[in-house]
Design goal:
The chain contains 2 helices and no strands. It has one domain. It has 60 residues and is an all-alpha fold. It is elongated and about 45 Å long. Keywords: Membrane, Transmembrane, Transmembrane helix. InterPro entries: DUF6954.
C-alpha cells in the first residue's frame, strides 16, 4: 500500500511540474496571470509534499 501511494504522489508531482510550470515559464499571459499560476503550483507542491510526509509517517 505504501509503494502504491508513493507512486501516486510522485506521478502527481510530475504532472504538476509538467502542467504547472510550463504555463508559468512559457505562457504569453500577463505577469499577474503567471504569478497567480505560480502561487497555485507552489501550493500544490506544498500539499503533495505534506501528503508524501504523511504517507511515510503513517506506513512505516
Amino acid at each position: 500500500m505504501k509503494i502504491f501511494l508513493n507512486i501516486i504522489i510522485i506521478i502527481a508531482l510530475v504532472a504538476v511540474t509538467f502542467f504547472g510550470l510550463g504555463p508559468v515559464l512559457l505562457a504569453d499571459g500577463s505577469k499577474t496571470e503567471r504569478l497567480l499560476t505560480l502561487l497555485v503550483v507552489l501550493a500544490l507542491y506544498f500539499l503533495l509534499v505534506l501528503a508524501l510526509k504523511w504517507v511515510k509517517k503513517r506506513y512505516r
